[in-house]
Amino acid sequence: MIASTSSAQEQVIKNFTVDTMLYTSSEKAAAAWRPMQGALAPIPATVDGVRCLTLPCHFRPSTQRALWEKDIDVDLTQYNYLYFRFKAPDLSAIGNVAIYLQSGDKGWYLCDDHTVVRLLTDQWMTALIPIKAFREVGEPAGWEQITKMRISIWQRKDIATSVSISDIRFQKIDLVNLVHNSGFEYASIDRHPDYWGPGHWGLREGRWTAKMDQWRETWRIDDTVAHQGKNSLRVVQTAEADILEHRVVSTFFPTTKNKPYTFSAWLKSDQPNGQEVELKIYTLKNTWVKKTFTVTHTWKRYEVGFTPKKTSPRTRSAICPTTQGTLWIDSVQAEAGTTATTYQPAFKDITIIGHAVQNNEPAIADYPIIAGSNTGTSSIDTNRRFLVDGKPFIPTTVGWDKEPTPNAIRDLALSGFNTLCFTAYPSQTVASLRTIMDNANTLGLKITQH
Ligand SMILES: [Ca+2]
User: Fold this and answer.
1) Which terminal residue of the chain, N or C, has fewer Cβ atoms less than 10 Å from its own Cβ?
2) Distance from C-alpha of 110 to C-alpha of 136, rounded to nearest angstrom
3) In a domain, 190, yes or no
4) Across-strand partners of 326?
5) What HEC string does 96-154 produce?
6) End of a domain among 318, 349, 380?
7) 248 CA to middle of ligand 1, Å?
8) What DSSP element (H or E) covers 378?
9) What pLDDT, on the 0 to 100 scale, is given for residue 99?
10) What is the domain extent for residue 387?
11) CA–centroid distance, residue 161 to ligand 1 (Å)
12) How many angstroms separate the alpha carbon of residue 331 from the centre of ligand 1?
């Protein structure tokens, strides 16, 4: 058992390794993870390139579950998450994976909630379970004295199957950053960062909408320059008229009224005499706080404080170059408090989306998304790709702020776009919406709304 701090996320995560699951024989594995109630001995294995312990589950009609126990010794008041990786080749045979933590002789802490340990795919998955998701069974003696971990795999089908597990740890994760993809490390679409846009989430200027490839060259990931990680965002501001198109605006994050926050970003410019850049916070109803800086040619952190007058789930941060130059942006952070603390990625940026669970909220991949097609289903997969009917899909469209006419819909389809985007107002009737949607569907267009 090793307590260590991850070098990659130094100051962010403290680890207590329960078991790396790297055993050289079944005997040694079974001595550590004792098979209980007739379960079979664990098998050291390499599954899809991952060294692990495979737990054989030979379910019979009389078998409710297979379980294994290991002695541990940990004070869990110092940690707030249980982390492990697992893979189940036949999800249909597995009912649930329950984790028990024994404390004293009279009780356990148990996590067996399907919403926490979810068997989503037959690939390697990462579980990140909040300690507070565990509930008491019997009379556990306290979080300070955890002496045993039990893995219990419940049967759904009475067949022989298995679950492989790797790298079990308790973690202390104390993340403050509210901004998603704040280091620009994720880009599902070629060199275009996830969770960021130019403000209106589309381009308004006609000369750019006709030359999207050129605009992308001026507003994109740069994987040769970074303050942290591999990427930064590079914005080439060539004319003052392009200020709106070259804003760098985050997705929403929640803020609480009368509470101070600090927004910061690491910036550098190619301008020898500096480039003017605004840091902005958009709060409710698009009121904003801003501070203007002259950014120099070396990486430096800039920050602005703000205190929202109302509680809102819809606060956004923005970095806006207002004079000409090439600007690199990285390590953006919005956090509670009056000063910027050491940069940390946001919670979901260091976990595998789709398998991370925070405060029992569904992970992003679990939210159903309704596609325009009346037969299609859509979702976001574990690699953050948007899928329609199981296949990656990138909507290309022109947006209407009113009802698109039949001719407009037809022209959209004939021009090679694959999606119709329009605003649905309360004044519209179901019948008029239905006409638009049927029209689009007939022409093979998906529908999205803004
Ligand atoms: Ca970065």
Assistant:
1) N
2) 6
3) no
4) 236
5) EEEEEEECCCCEEEEECCCCCCCCCCCCCEEEEEEHHHCEEEECCCCCCCEEEEEEEEE
6) 349
7) 15
8) strand 378-380
9) 92
10) 364-449
11) 41
12) 6
Is residue 181 one of the residues assigned to a domain?
A: no
CA of 345 to the centre of ligand 1 (A): 10
Residues with CB under 5 A from ligand 1 (ion): 183, 226, 228-229, 231, 330
Question: Measured in angstroms, how far is the CA atom of residue 401 from the centroid of ligand 1?
Answer: 35
Cα 145 to middle of ligand 1, angstroms: 40
How is residue 129 written in tokens?
């379970």
What spacing in Å lies between the alpha carbon of 360 and ligand 1's midpoint?
29
Q: How many angstroms is it from 334 CA to the middle of ligand 1? A: 15
Predicted pLDDT of residue 376: 58
Q: Which long-range contacts (CB under 8 A, 24 or more apart) does 110-115 make?
A: 110/134, 110/135, 110/136, 110/137, 111/82, 111/135, 112/152, 113/360, 115/357, 115/360, 115/362
Q: DSSP letter at 49?
A: T
For residue 301, the CA-to-ligand 1 centroid distance in Å is 14
Assess whether 147 and 283 both reside in one domain.
no
Residue for token pair 């101070």: 260
State the distance from the centre of ligand 1 to the C-alpha of 385, rounded, in angstroms. 20
Q: Work out the number of other CB atoms within 10 angstroms of the CB of residue 338.
A: 10
Q: What is the pLDDT of residues 260-290, one digit of tens each?
A: 999 999 999 999 999 999 999 998 766 789 9
Number of domains into which the chain is organized? 3
Question: How far from the centroid of its chain's Cα atoms is residue 157's Cα?
Answer: 32
Q: Which of 126, 121, 96, 124 is closest to 111 using CA atoms?
A: 96
**Last residue of one domain, picked from the residues 349, 380, 401:** 349
Q: Give domain status of residue 183, yes or no.
A: no
Residue 59 sits in a domain of what CATH number? Answer: 2.60.120.430
Residue 355 lies in a domain: no
User: Within this chain, do residues 285 and 241 fall inside the same structural domain, yes or no?
Assistant: yes
C-alpha 160 to ligand 1 mean position (Å): 45
Please tell me whether the overall predicted TM-score, pTM, comes out greater than 0.85 for this model.
no
CA of 182 to the centre of ligand 1 (A): 7
Please indicate, yes or no, whether residues 60 and 161 belong to a single structural domain of this protein: yes
Q: Is the same domain home to 272 and 403?
A: no
78 beta partners: none
Which amino acid is residue 218, in one-letter code? T
- Here the tokens at position 392 are 């990656």
Residue 207 is part of a domain; what is its CATH number?
Answer: 2.60.120.260
